[in-house]
Automatic annotation (TrEMBL):
The lineage of its organism: Eukaryota, Fungi, Dikarya, Ascomycota, Saccharomycotina. Keywords: Actin-binding, Cytoplasm, Cytoskeleton. Occurs in many kinds of cells as a complex with monomeric actin in a 1:1 ratio. It holds the Pfam family Profilin. This is Profilin. Binds to actin and affects the structure of the cytoskeleton. At high concentrations, profilin prevents the polymerization of actin, whereas it enhances it at low concentrations. One of its GO terms (biological process) is positive regulation of formin-nucleated actin cable assembly. It comes from Komagataella phaffii (strain GS115 / ATCC 20864) (Yeast). Gene3D superfamilies: Dynein light chain 2a, cytoplasmic.
Length: 126
């Protein structure tokens, strides 16, 4: 299975409309569906946020030029919200999953989908 199959499967749930997978270091994009490509400073902001939440807590989360209000930030998961849409980022051993949910989708439904994929990738060594 290619990495794009994972992002395509996230979109196929109809709870997420864009998704990407980056290396855990943020130095390469492994997959994207519906053009969820972050600027270099945005992915590095996420990478730093997994290590130390203070930066994101101070400035908010930025994805594709949009600022998101930080809802959760720890060593595994970062969640952000802008009006009625949101961003979910989950770090595995070797990757960062990033997904966007559109208006009308409950945050809990969307986060559960991304967290389950992260659990699977961790279970197989990624």
């Amino acid at each position: 299975m290619s990495w794009n199959a994972y992002t395509d499967n996230l979109i196929a749930t109809n709870k997420l409309d864009r998704a990407a997978i980056y290396s855990a270091a943020g130095d390469s994009q492994w997959a994207t569906t519906n053009d969820l490509t972050l600027l270099p400073n945005e992915i590095q902001e996420l990478v730093a946020g997994f290590k130390d939440p203070s930066g994101l807590q101070a400035t908010g989360l930025h994805i594709k030029g949009q600022k998101y209000f930080l809802l959760k930030n720890d060593e595994r998961s970062i969640y952000g919200r802008h009006e009625t849409e949101g961003i979910i980022a989950v770090k595995t051993k070797q990757a960062i999953l990033i997904a966007h949910y559109p208006p009308g989708v409950e945050a809990g439904e969307a986060t559960l989908i991304v967290e389950k994929l992260a659990d699977y990738l961790i279970s197989v060594g990624y």
